[in-house]
Amino acid sequence: MDIVLVAGLWLDGSAWDDVLPELEELGHRGIAVTLPGQGDDAVAATYEDQVGAVLAAVDAADGAPLVVGHSAASTLAWVAADRRPDAVTGVVLVGGFPSTGETTYADFFEPTGDAVPFPGWEPFAGPDSDDMSPELKAEVAARTVPVPVGVTKGVVHWIDERRHGVPLTLVCPEFTPDQAREWIESGDVPELADATALELVDLDSGHWPMFTQPAALAALIDEATKR
């Protein structure tokens, strides 16, 4: 099966380099998307440009692909279900949740000029990054790309209620399924509260399992293709 992979803020398609061969061994073709503004020098890119890139990858896939979104890009993966509910096999969210409709995509950090640079590891101290060695942190930080403000401040619009029936898997890395369930039941994540085919799965890792647990992450993605 074709699997469209979308990494979160500051990362390009190479973030999935260790996951791709694991998926191939499991019989899948991984399609790692480099988003506009996150690796292609498109400093004026917008949120809608990134939406367009994900939808283009879905449209170009062989058959109905599974779409995987990491961190903030969980919203972009869920957009695929919203805009192409009949054309995707399912969606996997890794350590992230879709934004609530009519809110900004990822306005979490202060910009520097027209872009939001990687803020360093201090904001992610603790469970997010405890499984990363200093060497790995340095390597990942060196590969990060500032994200255009036009992306982070873009407004999310949900269109098609049929997205709620698309098979959805939430991979819980630095938090547990029980914690995620509490957030969903409390109303903090309305998009997941309305999902009718949601499965929560645990992964013993930090926030970036594509770097620290690529085989385990690939195995969970493979399981999601069977739903």
TrEMBL record:
What Pfam family does this protein match (any one)?
Answer: Abhydrolase_6
AB hydrolase-1 domain location is 3-219
Give one GO term, molecular function aspect.
hydrolase activity
Kindly provide the name given to this protein in its UniProt entry: Alpha/beta hydrolase
Q: PANTHER family, from UniProt?
A: AB HYDROLASE-1 DOMAIN-CONTAINING PROTEIN-RELATED, ESTERASE_LIPASE_THIOESTERASE DOMAIN-CONTAINING PROTEIN
Swiss-Prot/TrEMBL keywords:
Hydrolase
